[in-house]
């Protein structure tokens, strides 16, 4: 089996939050600041994860590997785990919890806490030690349930060189960027626990069960409803567009096509508000009065229809593309 290193894609909530900034009233300063802080935090996390990806790719593996970035796995009825970096081999499994943080860091136990001091400001976070220990325990449970015996190694990856560790964690080792390939190459001596067929079956099973992390819808966090945003169809440039039946309609400011703008506005609904939509909600949201036009729009999307004609609701699963070809 050839090595498979899947490419990490940009978190979709970055685009969704930027769209939210276009639609929210400029007078809502507190929410706007909160959204911008979240965008900066998610972008920083993504950049750190890309650095870790680079050093995993740099590693001289001497055995087959499959790499899953940003993997969410349901291990039991009520437990889901989200793993930043998951490496599968016939000899071992390795997981990294990535923390792209600058400043002074102190790791505490009993209770687990991570304290960060940046520019004289103190922030307290959930400790990545407890997070990754929970992940490893959950993954071990999943393996046992599937009759697979593989050792699990786990580390906290610190991709930011502008970090000073004032108090190191006691339970989980930290690795800076250049230490990642050194650590992984040390595992090359481990004996194979799975033969080629067993390893292939494990990777196929994981591939079928791993899903990309789904943080949607986003507006619940900011206590926002559709009526808190500017009404109508909002273009990529922030211009409000009034719907027209003309096929060649374009934004008068940036020239974007009606089809692209409309599709983005509909995607915004599911990313921001909720996974369902009715014809009435769609008409009110887009400011389109004709229910037949809206009905055609809804039928052109990969949505599950629920209920009868009068109370019909359309549901999106966030897995397949929203729009049909």
TrEMBL record:
InterPro entries: NERD (IPR011528). This is NERD domain-containing protein. Residues 44-162 form the NERD domain. It holds the Pfam family NERD. It comes from the Bacteria.
């Amino acid at each position: 089996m050839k090595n498979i290193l899947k490419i990490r894609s940009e978190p979709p909530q970055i685009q969704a939050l930027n769209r939210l900034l276009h639609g929210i009233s400029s007078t809502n300063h507190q929410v706007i600041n909160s959204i911008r802080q979240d965008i900066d935090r998610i972008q920083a996390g993504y950049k750190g994860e890309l650095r870790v990806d680079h050093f995993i790719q740099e590693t001289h593996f001497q055995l087959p590997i499959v790499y899953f970035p940003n993997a969410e796995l349901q291990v039991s009825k009520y437990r889901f785990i989200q793993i930043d970096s998951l490496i599968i081999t016939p000899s071992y499994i390795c997981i990294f919890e990535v923390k792209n943080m600058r400043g002074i860091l102190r790791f505490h136990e009993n209770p687990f806490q991570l304290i960060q001091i940046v520019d004289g400001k103190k922030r307290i976070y959930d400790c990545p030690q407890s997070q990754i220990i929970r992940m490893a325990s959950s993954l071990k449970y999943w393996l046992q349930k599937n009759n697979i015996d593989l050792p699990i190694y786990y580390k906290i990856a610190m991709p930011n060189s502008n970090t000073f560790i004032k108090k190191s964690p006691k339970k989980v080792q930290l690795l800076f960027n250049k230490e990642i390939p050194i650590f992984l190459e040390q595992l090359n001596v481990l004996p194979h626990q799975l033969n080629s067929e067993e390893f292939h079956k494990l990777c196929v099973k994981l591939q079928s069960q791993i899903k990309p992390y789904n943080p949607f819808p986003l507006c619940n966090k900011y206590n926002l409803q559709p009526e808190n945003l500017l009404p109508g169809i909002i273009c990529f440039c922030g211009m409000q567009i009034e719907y027209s039946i003309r096929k060649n309609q374009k934004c008068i400011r940036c020239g974007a096509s009606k089809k692209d703008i409309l599709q983005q506005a509909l995607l915004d609904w599911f990313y921001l508000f909720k996974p369902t939509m009715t014809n009435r909600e769609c008409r009110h949201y887009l400011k389109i009065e004709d229910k037949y036009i809206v009905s055609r729009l809804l039928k052109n999307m990969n949505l599950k229809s629920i209920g009868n004609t009068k109370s019909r609701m359309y549901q999106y699963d966030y897995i397949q593309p929203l729009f049909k070809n």
